[in-house]
Design the sequence.
């Protein structure tokens, strides 16, 4: 059941990401639903499931983008690990910590992605303007994605 | 919440290593092709409208050609549309150029003083009644001045000025139901009266029964007309109508020498109405 639910969420989130990018983009930016789903899995799921889902989501974004293959997978894996380390100290099921988590992790993933790109290609694919918009968008969308996935897990009694 | 962080280390190391492996592993062209086709399928806008080749790097030539073909196709389709508009404009200019060249060639055939004027519009209710022409700057055009045009290399009578406004002039056509002029059948034929009926044809009245007029006879303005210069071509007899309004005369239907749909410019002849001879002058 868990596997089936994870695959369904993967497909649905992938579709949502495409939908937001095409129809609800704010200039060049759109809410990063995939990133929010990664954070949710990292907060809610066991380490193996969380890493697997984050890695797959990262690969999905790599496949859609034009940059390094594996860069997003690496960034999401590190983000997932960071959350797994700190999640016992915070209650990420509450609203305010969720906003903080999404905001801080967006900035963190941005810096990490730039570092990985610098190391492997010498290029900086993301613009600094990303920092002024994307974290706020992610902070807004993350509680919604979290509530949706959390309710699914609760409904299907998946731990 | 009580899950052990220790459990996270092994999978973290595994996926971390896997990501690094993907990053350092030289991505094959097949992988890049799959990526770009997938991104093209999901985000066609990026590929279609991206001018830089960032999205097409490290891609085999055939895949690159496939994607570029669509870009080029859209570009060419837009170019064809704009070219069609340009061609239509060019054809309009060519037509105008041909007409104006004809008018220039016609200049030696115009022994009168006058001015050329463009046709602005026609009477929307009846094209065969009157038309509006633009008034040239410092124009000396007055009411009743005759107007001619060019048709098939000939000077053809069109009508006369009915009203002069500050920026345009109204010309009543020979085909209008209120038009009637003295005409002559052939260059040395008898005079008759030509009048319009508000249709595409004009009619010559008062042709004496003793005179035989055949189909194809040309009709000209008469030397005896007070407002028109003599021998301007008006049209050609098309049909004889034996039953006239009076028993001693018959009528002929005449096809005017111009097509009102094709009149673009007219030449207004400076010609004052001929003054009659006064009694004092006779004396």
Sequence:
């Amino acid at each position: 059941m868990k596997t089936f639910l994870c695959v369904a969420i993967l497909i649905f989130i992938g579709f949502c990401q495409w939908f937001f990018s095409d129809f609800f983009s704010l200039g060049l930016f759109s809410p990063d639903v995939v990133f929010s789903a990664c954070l949710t899995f990292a907060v809610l799921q066991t380490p193996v499931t969380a890493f697997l889902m984050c890695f797959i989501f990262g690969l999905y974004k790599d496949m859609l983008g034009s940059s390094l293959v594996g860069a997003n997978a690496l960034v999401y894996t590190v983000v997932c690990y960071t959350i797994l380390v700190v999640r016992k100290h915070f209650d990420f099921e509450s609203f305010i910590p969720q906003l903080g988590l999404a905001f801080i992790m967006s900035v963190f993933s941005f810096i990490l992605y730039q570092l990985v790109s610098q190391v492997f290609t010498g290029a900086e694919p993301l613009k600094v303007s990303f920092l002024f918009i994307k974290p706020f968008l992610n902070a807004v969308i993350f509680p919604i994605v979290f509530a949706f996935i959390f309710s699914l897990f609760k409904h299907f009694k998946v731990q | 919440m009580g899950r052990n962080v220790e459990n996270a280390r092994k999978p973290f190391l595994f996926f971390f290593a896997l990501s690094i492996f993907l990053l350092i592993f030289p991505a094959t062209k097949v992988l890049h092709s799959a990526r770009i086709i997938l991104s093209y399928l999901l985000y066609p806008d990026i590929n279609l409208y991206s001018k830089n080749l960032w999205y097409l790097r490290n891609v085999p030539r055939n895949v690159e050609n496939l994607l570029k073909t669509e870009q080029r196709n859209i570009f060419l389709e837009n170019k064809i549309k704009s070219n069609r508009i340009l061609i239509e404009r060019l054809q309009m200019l060519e037509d105008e150029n041909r007409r104006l060249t004809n008018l220039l060639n016609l200049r030696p055939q115009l022994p009168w003083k006058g001015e050329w004027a463009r046709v602005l519009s026609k009477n929307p209710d009846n094209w065969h009644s009157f038309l509006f022409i633009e008034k040239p700057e410092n124009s000396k055009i007055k009411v009743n001045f005759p107007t001619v045009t060019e048709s098939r290399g000939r000077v053809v009578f069109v009508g006369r000025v009915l009203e002069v406004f500050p920026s345009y002039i109204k010309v009543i056509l020979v085909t209008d139901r209120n038009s009637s002029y003295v005409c002559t059948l052939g260059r040395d034929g008898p005079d008759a009266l030509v009048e319009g009926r508000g249709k595409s044809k004009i009619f010559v009245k008062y042709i004496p029964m003793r005179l035989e007029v055949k189909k194809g006879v040309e009709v000209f303005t008469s030397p005896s007309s007070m407002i028109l210069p003599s021998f301007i071509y008006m049209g050609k007899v098309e049909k004889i109508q034996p039953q006239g309004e009076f028993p001693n005369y018959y009528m002929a239907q005449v096809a005017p020498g111009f097509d009102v749909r094709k009149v673009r410019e007219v030449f207004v002849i400076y010609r004052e109405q001929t003054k009659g001879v006064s009694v004092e002058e006779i004396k």
Remarks:
- Chain A has a mean pLDDT of 84.
- DSSP finds six helices and no strands in chain A.
- Residues 95-120 of chain A form the longest helix (26 residues).
- Helices of chain A lie at 2-23, 33-44, 47-64, 71-86, 95-120, 130-155.
